[in-house]
Amino acid sequence: MRAPLLSPDAAGLACPEGGFHVDPWRPVPRAVITHAHADHARGGSDAYLCTPGTAAMLRQRLGTVQVQEAGWGEPVALGAVTVSFHPAGHVPGSAQLRVARAGEVWVVSGDYKTAPDGLSEAFEPVACDTFVSECTFGLPVFRWPDQGAELARIRDWWAGCAAAGVVPVLGAYSLGKAQRLIAGLAGAGPIAAHPAVEGASAALRAAGYPVPDTLPAAPPLPPGALVIAPPAALAGGWAGRFGPASTAFASGWMAIRGLRRRRGAERGFVLSDHADWPGLNAAIRATGAARVLLTHGTTAAFARYLAEGGLEAGALATAYAGESLDEAGA
Amino acid sequence: MRRFAALFAALDGTTGTAAKVAALADYFRTAPEPDRVWTVALLSGRRPKRAVAAARLREWAAEAAGLPRWLVEEAYPVVGDLAETIALILPPPSRATDRSLSDWMAWLAGLAPRDEAARKAAILEAWDGLDATGRFLFNKLLTGGFRMGVSRGLMTRALAEATGRAETDIAAALTGAWDPATTRFADLVAGAGAGPGADARPYPFFLAYPLEDPPERLGDPAHWHAEWKWDGIRGQLVARGGTVALWSRGDELVTDRFPELAALGNALPPGTAIDGEVLAWAGHGPLPFAALQTRIGRKTVSRKLLAEAPALLMAYDLLEAGGEDLRAAPFALRRARLAALVAGLPPGLPLRLSPELPFADWGALAAARAQARATGAEGLMLKRRASAYGVGRRRGDWWKWKVEPFTVDAVMVYAQAGHGRRATLFTDYTFALRDGDALVPFAKAYSGLTDAEFREISAWVRAHTLERFGPVRRVVPELVFEIGFEGVQPSPRHKAGLALRFPRMLRWRRDKPAAEIGTLAELRALLAAQAG
After folding, report:
1. Do A113 and A229 reside in the same domain of the chain?
2. Is the pLDDT of residue A326 over 60?
């Protein structure tokens, strides 16, 4: 029996036949990166391969590193295997990685969501034998509402804040979530962005993504402005500079009332860059894979559920954080 | 339920007290009359009996959602709330039902007497007609325990605002046993709610704050009255117009459970209300709390139990005499009248005046406090002699100064995720002590650490799980905590043969290895010392 095409080692998910690691958490000779979030794209490796959209962010975050870019579906030969990137719909530029050797195809999902967000390239299912899938929200309690409905709820809250003379401060990941919100809310009023958010927005604009311009988040704000900032800034009291504020978070975890209350936010909007329960199940079925290996999330329970449905399923130990609630933010 | 759901959304969408009071006051002014009464009932903890066991609800919800039962069990600790878990997993509704809150409450009351198949069909049908928020609220009504982030004090304030009545009058009007199904809102806030014991309605209890500063800060000792803080059930005995009622602090009528105190009430002059502590008492001192516990759960009291754990009212205060409300009078005066009342009663009644502990200076009082355990008390009460009898927990005039807790260092052996805002965090721990070579679980605790510590320990638990039993994880016995507790009592139900009173974590002993934890023998010795 041949060795598995991909398996975890001390540095990450390794492909010995291709001589690379996918999203390694330690420095390696060649790193293939699915997307630019910090838990998937770490510094210190000798060479990187990723999509152009991810490369823009990588250069902004890691400085001058050796990055090879590959467009959507473009085959790249690495050692004895061929790899290609396919849209994951997680954040702009985020990819699933297809790895093929004679007679066998694996797909590593990276982080993904199946519903379009208006800015990221929409998720495309890729046929494979083995699907390495994230399952951050792999429980049936996670079903995302329609994005349009959540954006409408945000606009209502924003208007209510403006009428009450308080500043609405919305916590959202700097890369991806923030730009998705800026694009979705543009036109409803002035939006001011935290420097970390603006840094990611500028890099994405330079890479060709239509991220609307925003104001710097510094007092005095124009009347009726919405502030978008990373969750950590809200936790650190950064929002205090604007005077009376109403805080909110945009995250999949906000679907759970207790978690929202724990964050101490007045409002929670259910907007995730990860697939919900129906999305995960649909994505897995669409690959046609007979075997599914799960990373970050409730891997054991989801593996058991898939196994009861007739798939070969197991968990892979990784160091990815997924959409974390307490450490990196919402 | 739309109006009620809107209230819930308004309360849930703000962390500000003023905004909550405003939303509630608006509701109490404009919502349909019977819904207001039910809302007051729910927010003051008066909920209908559970019509369906929680286990059945999980089962039916899993079935309706087409999910295996075990997967629902996996999801529950992540959500941390059963009503919410069920609301989240059910398939989208196929119809829209609109019933008012009071209609739903009547519907629920009609559910209880039906057989299980009928109850199941009714609940599945109800779920199918409600949206996500509606289902969550409906499930909360079904399972009880509805808090909505509103304290009783906040609700009282909102009612006062909505009706133009004084807060203290509202607080008094809401006491006692009234039935939301038959009470009108106007009667309720006017204090005319009927029900058992209505003629002998209690006054809202005045509660003390824990003393954290040194007592010297309280100033001149001459202004303060000190007495034991007895470890029983706070109660109010009211005798009015031929009716006698004993009330516990939760406004529960417990007269039937303590017939000897009901008999005492008959000996009191009409128009009397005494605030005190119900204790199990033998000879010259209180029996351990465990003895009183045998009396709490029983509606009918056997002669044997009456002899084994006779109850006594330790009187603290006199709130009403000769039908006159004394609460605005200074404590010193109320106390003097109480002493005179007790002295004038025939001997042999189960009533004592809680003795005053005279002290010349704060040092002497600290020395008295050190004797509390030997007396069977849990510390001291300090009351300003000039103070009125207030409502609720207020700082300034009454303080409780409890003795330092007992402590023991123990190792965590099991961890379980918390509920509500603690969902997904491991916050409920089981601790073990050494017994020879074995580690024996002896206590559970879930409070006393900071949020940051709970997060750190949760990450540790995930990485050090040895075994999983549903939501419970057995972990490597490595983390040591200092456990504080108020006492120990025998308990054949527990593996350790004993149970702690009020166990909580005092601190995480990062400095201490598991090899240096305490032993079960220490607690057995303590148990023996208490019994002797």
Report:
1. no
2. no
Distances (CA, A) of B396 to A324, B159, B217, B230, B334: 44, 26, 11, 21, 18
Interface test mutation site (partner B, options A234, A253, A262, A302, max chain B beta carbons within 10 A): A262
Q: Tell me if residue B229 is catalytic.
A: yes
Residue in B120, B229, B444, B512 annotated catalytic: B229
Do A187 and A256 reside in the same domain of the chain?
A: yes
CB contact under 8 A, B424 and A143: no
- Looking at the fold, whether A136 and A12 belong to one and the same domain comes out as yes
The alpha carbon of residue A184 is apart from the nearest alpha carbon of chain B, in Å, by 22
Sign, Cα dihedral of B232, B233, B236, B242: negative
Rounded Cα distance between B323 and B467, Å, is 63
Q: Kindly report, residue by residue over B319-343, the tens digit of the pLDDT.
A: 999 999 999 999 999 999 999 999 9
Q: Could B78 and A140 be called an inter-chain contact, meaning their C-beta atoms sit closer than 8 Å? A: no
Tens of pLDDT, residue by residue over B482-520, are: 999 988 988 888 888 999 988 999 999 998 899 999 999
Q: Give A305's contacts in chain B (Cβ within 8 Å).
A: 68, 71
Three-state DSSP class for residue B402: strand
Q: Are A301 and B71 an interchain contact pair (Cβ–Cβ within 8 Å)? A: yes
Q: In angstroms, what separates the C-alpha of B16 from chain A's closest C-alpha?
A: 9
Report all structural domains of chain B as residue ranges with CATH numbers, in order of start.
2-143 (1.10.3260.10), 206-402 (3.30.470.30), 406-531 (2.40.50.140)
pLDDT digits (tens, 9 = 90+) for B201-225: 888 899 999 998 899 999 999 999 9
* Cβ neighbour number for residue B311 with a 10 Å cutoff: 25
Cis peptide before A220 (omega within 30 of 0): yes
> Using CA atoms, how far apart are residues A247 and A269, in angstroms rounded to an integer?
11
Q: How far apart are the CA of A38 and the nearest CA of chain B, in angstroms? A: 19
